[in-house]
């Protein structure tokens, strides 16, 4: 093979790395080896995830990644010099030597360096549509690993056969594995249309960090008959021990918007097989450990630090704490930080918040025009809910603002997977304060205000979340805390409750210039009494950037800054 | 007035001929209920039973308890002989159980959509109108209804309005009435009805639409620990089939690879295409006997029983527990249903479901009836039961096809025999299609269990029709080997004959 060909190959193939992956890799200090997972099109490799040998979840860790991600190359973290990795033709390598990212591609003979670009979260989610497949399978088998393996094997064969069909929910469109389209229906008018046309929300928010979703129901075609053998009945009346088990499946699969709809069923089927094999791991565990009780339920999460779907399975009735060791191994394997929950049940992705009408709006700041300080902008990390007056049919006008701000703080911990507990009501909050002796029992059911100290007590007692407090004697003094607040959003990333005079607010971001000392605050105002209308909330400033003048010069202010517990 | 009753002129001729013969006769009306009519397609005279046919049926306590009146009286084992004068000569002498048993067996020969609509009786007006006769008729209709409904396991609603046709043996006049079994008082339930015999039979367009499908059944059930051990074979399987039948009702049925709404017409009349750009589809030949639609049945594969019931016990999923064994039902079923020319898609889907459930339950009933005694299963390894396979019957001058079930060892001639006995039809052997369902061969049967757990075929050499179903049991012996060899030989022979037939076509 002539060198010219090698060059040609390398010039033709482009490597792109998902921004979150590049960021995580750059933060690694321990030496490790592993594989890169991503997608491969004719001329482009997109690296989305890595699996390192540092973690051992007890099963093939790539089962945690969504279809169509496949191994596209290798990965290494080292200190100092490294040798050019050995790669198969077309494979890529990502090497982090604590100084810079080196990337390589395998040619016909050896690997050569290749340049890479960064794919942003938005670009990534604009490329794909997420398909969700729901199903429920009885996976009871005799209590031996070989019986379980046989069962999974035979189910896999069925899922890979052309009997596996997928119906787009609420439509007449049915896709069939290995065949393409079984029944054509809206929103499709001919079988050659691309996947993009499945998503009805053409008006979808381009800035969204998660792709639009199409939901499918798994359907098994009984009319695909492998033989003409008439039915027979096999009765075995020997006593036996069985593991009764149930998989409440939910598979998320990335579909490239440009792919043909007729190719979708195969990917969905592969996604189901992947989940079934993950379930097989848990069945084996359930045999050996009676504490791992319950139906197997997947938790699909898209954490902002990861940027793509991670799909784990847990037995329903098992304590979160009992699963911590497993979670740690998964974190290590996928190169996830060990100081924050990312794959707990609470991290389960709840798609389409907007579609559930009654629910609280989330991340209401998205879409606001930027602040005018042009300093360092730091905003709450992840998702929070906008809690304000009059929600839940509860009239707390003129007294409940701090309660609502506390609810927003709690919502952040809920969305980020720290807690499964519900958002506390005003009464829950009052009861908690009475229980710890901070308030008399007559406080319960009253309309008395609370301040940032009480907010801190409740976070601590109900959610095991500690807080830092800042006290200032005038609104202007807040300017001198610019650096501290910026650091808070960078390191902790939690919303801040601020109380002063008769008002409470939530600070969800700052824009601070370390040169001029100017500062703007991104404020979420709990005094809003209207409906969940994002347009009004943004245009009328219920969620918006405020200057220092927003705070009263003559009032004292107390800030409660919740601190993330270190856990997975 | 009850629903309008429709039938072909030929049926009128037949009834008149019976009246002219002057002998008492009772028989079943085969046809289809629509929203506002009863369409009769065939008259099946109730035969004089021979003892083999009327062996005591499975006395299953789980089934809706047929009143003792419909039970065959064990002392009346001496059945009327066809040649003797013991054939009933009036309504009071009709043995309830004879008609019920006829209904039980005849309904298995009907494809989906078709059912027993009622009875016809050739007798004198005095006999017909006597109050005891009327009570008797109502009793017979109730038994027929119960018998034909229970094999459906509540998967379909069966019309409770039954048809009674009286052919006067003196005036040869044909009169009709309907009995609504859902009303309790016999006065209110009985209505005079109009019967129309026309060429073609169903009022307008006489062609029935055919729906064909196949169904891959694959059920697995772990027997709960606390279950009482003395459960009959029939009942054991029914615990599995009940939830299955319920799930069948929920399945998604595609018709010709599309999902039309239930309210759509299955075969909408072609509107005259106005001149336009689109490619014109060739007009279908209007004289086609019946248009064939293909149905596909999809389900969500969800567990039929909640995990708490799997293997019994109070715990949910994810626990190891004791089970008393395992029942597996697996194989491919060939299905057929017919609907009238103006049927909706909903009616068509209902006909498919009716066919599916009736075929599965019906063949299991036949299998259990055929067993001389229940195998002592707990003493041995797994046992394979081979219920009879389904064959289809064309011809006989009917606007629809029929079906029958052949035990291992039976031949298509046996199906012709059934058609003659139960439906009064002369069918030629070449009109029996036994290719759509085949006898599972030994290796396939063995693979039903888990790999590495062979289930050697043995036991009960098939005694043929009504003699004994196919049962293969575990625990090999020399005898077993012999039977295996015989079966293999039989299979080879069958293949050779099949090759020969296709070669000489």
TrEMBL record, chain A:
Keywords: Hydrolase, Protease, Thiol protease, Ubl conjugation pathway. Residues 377-560 form the UFSP1/2/DUB catalytic domain. One of its GO terms (cellular component) is endoplasmic reticulum. It comes from the Eukaryota. Residues 196-209 have a biased composition (Low complexity). GO terms for molecular function: deUFMylase activity. GO terms for biological process: proteolysis. InterPro entries: Papain-like_cys_pep_sf (IPR038765), UFSP1/2_DUB_cat (IPR012462), UFSP2-like_2nd (IPR049387). SUPFAM superfamilies: Cysteine proteinases. Residues 186-210 are annotated as: Disordered. Residues 204-348 form the UFSP2 second domain. It holds the Pfam family Peptidase_C78. Belongs to the peptidase C78 family. Thiol protease which recognizes and hydrolyzes the peptide bond at the C-terminal Gly of UFM1, a ubiquitin-like modifier protein bound to a number of target proteins. Does not hydrolyze SUMO1 or ISG15 ubiquitin-like proteins. This is Probable Ufm1-specific protease 2.
Automatic annotation (TrEMBL), chain B:
The chain crosses the membrane at residues 486-504. Its main location: membrane. Signal peptide: none annotated. Residues 50-62 have a biased composition (Acidic residues). The keyword Membrane applies. Residues 45-90, 263-288 are annotated as: Disordered. The keyword Metal-binding does not apply. InterPro entries: ODR-4-like. One of its GO terms (biological process) is intracellular protein localization. Residues 65-87 have a biased composition (Polar residues). Belongs to the ODR-4 family. This is Protein odr-4 homolog. It comes from Petrolisthes manimaculis.
């Amino acid at each position: 093979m002539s060198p010219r060909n090698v060059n040609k190959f390398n010039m033709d193939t482009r490597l792109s790395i998902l921004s979150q992956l590049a960021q995580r890799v750059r933060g690694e200090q321990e030496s490790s080896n592993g594989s890169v997972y991503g997608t491969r099109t004719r001329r482009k490799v997109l690296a989305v995830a890595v699996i390192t040998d540092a973690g051992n979840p007890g099963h093939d860790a790539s089962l945690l990644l969504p279809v169509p991600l496949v191994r596209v190359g290798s990965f290494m973290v080292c200190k100092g010099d490294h040798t050019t990795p050995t790669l198969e033709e077309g494979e890529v390598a990502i090497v982090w030597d604590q100084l810079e990212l080196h990337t390589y591609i395998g040619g016909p003979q050896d690997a050569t360096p290749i340049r890479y670009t960064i794919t942003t979260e938005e670009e990534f989610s604009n490329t794909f549509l997420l398909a969700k497949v729901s199903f429920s399978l009885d996976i009871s088998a005799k209590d031996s690993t070989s019986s379980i393996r046989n069962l999974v094997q035979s189910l896999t064969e069925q899922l890979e056969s052309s009997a596996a069909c997928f119906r787009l929910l609420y439509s007449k469109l049915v896709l069939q594995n290995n065949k393409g389209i079984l029944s054509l229906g809206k929103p499709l008018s001919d079988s050659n249309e691309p996947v993009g046309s499945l998503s009805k929300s053409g008006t979808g928010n381009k800035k969204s960090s998660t792709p639009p979703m199409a939901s499918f129901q798994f359907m098994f075609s009984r009319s695909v008959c492998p033989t003409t053998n008439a039915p027979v009945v096999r009765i075995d009346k020997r006593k036996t021990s069985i593991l009764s088990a149930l998989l409440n499946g939910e598979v998320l699969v990335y579909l490239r918007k440009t792919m043909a709809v007729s190719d979708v069923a195969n990917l969905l089927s592969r996604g189901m097989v992947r989940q079934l094999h993950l379930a097989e791991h848990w069945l084996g565990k359930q045999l050996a450990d009676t504490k791992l009780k319950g139906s197997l339920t997947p938790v699909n999460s898209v954490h902002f630090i990861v940027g793509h779907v991670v799909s784990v399975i847990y037995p329903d009735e098992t304590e979160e704490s009992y699963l911590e060791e497993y979670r740690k191994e998964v974190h290590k394997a996928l190169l996830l930080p060990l100081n924050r929950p990312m794959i707990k049940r609470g991290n389960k992705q709840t798609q389409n918040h907007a579609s559930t009408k009654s629910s609280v709006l989330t991340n209401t700041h998205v879409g606001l025009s930027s602040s005018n300080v042009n300093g360092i902008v730091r905003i709450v990390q992840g998702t929070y809910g906008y809690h304000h007056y009059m929600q839940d049919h509860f009239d707390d006008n003129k007294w409940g603002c701090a309660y609502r701000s506390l609810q927003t703080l709690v919502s952040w911990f809920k969305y980020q997977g720290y807690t499964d507990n519900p958002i506390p009501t005003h009464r829950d909050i009052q009861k908690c304060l009475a229980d710890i002796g901070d308030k008399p029992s007559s406080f319960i059911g009253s309309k008395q205000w609370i301040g940032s100290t009480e907010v801190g007590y409740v976070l601590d007692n109900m959610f095991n979340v500690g807080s830092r407090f800042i006290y200032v004697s005038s609104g202007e003094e807040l300017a001198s805390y610019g650096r501290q607040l910026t650091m808070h959003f960078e390191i902790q990333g939690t919303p801040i409750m601020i109380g002063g005079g008769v008002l409470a607010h939530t600070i969800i971001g700052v824009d601070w210039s370390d040169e001029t000392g100017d500062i703007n605050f991104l404020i979420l105002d709990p005094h809003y009494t209207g409906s969940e209308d994002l347009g009004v909330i943004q245009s009328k400033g219920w969620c918006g950037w405020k200057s220092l003048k927003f705070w009263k010069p003559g009032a004292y202010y107390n800030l409660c800054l919740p601190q993330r517990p270190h856990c997975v | 007035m009850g629903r309008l009753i429709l039938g072909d002129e030929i049926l009128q001729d037949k009834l008149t001929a019976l009246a002219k013969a002057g002998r008492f006769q009772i028989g079943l009306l085969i046809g289809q209920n629509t929203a506002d009519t009863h369409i009769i397609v065939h008259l099946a005279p109730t035969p004089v039973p021979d003892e083999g046919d009327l062996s005591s049926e499975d006395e299953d306590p789980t089934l809706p308890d047929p009143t003792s009146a419909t039970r065959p009286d064990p002392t009346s084992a001496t059945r009327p002989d066809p040649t003797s004068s013991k054939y009933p000569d009036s309504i009071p002498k009709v043995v309830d159980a004879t008609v019920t048993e006829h209904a039980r067996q005849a309904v298995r020969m009907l494809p989906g959509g078709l059912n027993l609509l009622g009875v016809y009786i050739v007798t004198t007006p005095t006999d017909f109108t006597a109050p005891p006769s009327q009570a008797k008729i109502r009793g017979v209709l109730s038994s027929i209804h119960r018998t034909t409904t229970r094999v459906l396991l509540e998967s379909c609603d069966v019309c409770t309005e039954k048809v009674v046709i009286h052919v006067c043996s003196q005036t040869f006049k044909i009169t009709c009435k309907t009995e609504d079994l859902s009303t309790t008082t016999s006065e209110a339930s009985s209505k005079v009805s109009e019967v129309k015999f026309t060429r073609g039979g169903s009022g307008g367009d006489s062609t029935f639409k055919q729906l064909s499908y196949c169904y891959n059944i694959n059920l697995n059930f772990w027997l709960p620990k606390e279950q009482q051990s003395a459960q009959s074979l029939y009942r054991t399987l029914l615990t599995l089939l009940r939830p299955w039948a319920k799930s069948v009702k929920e399945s998604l049925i595609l018709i010709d690879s599309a999902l039309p709404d239930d309210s759509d017409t299955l075969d909408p009349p072609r509107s005259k295409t106005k001149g336009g750009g689109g490619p014109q589809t060739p007009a279908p030949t209007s004289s086609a006997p019946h248009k064939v639609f293909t149905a596909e049945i999809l389900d969500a594969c969800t567990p039929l029983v909640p995990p708490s019931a799997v293997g019994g016990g109070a715990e949910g999923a994810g626990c190891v527990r004791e089970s008393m064994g395992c029942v597996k039902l697996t194989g491919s079923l060939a299905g057929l249903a017919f609907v009238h020319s103006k049927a909706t898609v909903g009616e068509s889907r209902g006909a498919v479901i009716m066919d599916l459930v009736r075929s599965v339950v019906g063949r299991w009933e036949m299998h259990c009836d055929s067993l001389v005694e229940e195998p002592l299963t707990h003493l041995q390894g797994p046992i394979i039961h081979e219920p009879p396979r389904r064959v289809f019957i064309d011809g006989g001058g009917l606007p629809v096809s029929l079906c029958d079930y052949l035990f291992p060892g039976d031949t298509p001639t046996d199906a012709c025999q059934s058609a003659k006995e139960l439906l009064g039809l002369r069918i030629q052997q070449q009109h029996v299609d036994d290719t759509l369902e085949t006898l599972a061969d030994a290796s396939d049967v063995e693979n039903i269990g888990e790999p590495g757990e062979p289930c050697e075929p043995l036991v009960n050499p098939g005694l043929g029709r009504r003699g004994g179903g196919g049962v293969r049991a575990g625990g090999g012996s020399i005898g077993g080997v012999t039977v295996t060899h015989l079966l293999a030989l039989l299979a080879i022979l069958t293949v050779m004959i099949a090759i020969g037939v296709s070669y000489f076509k």
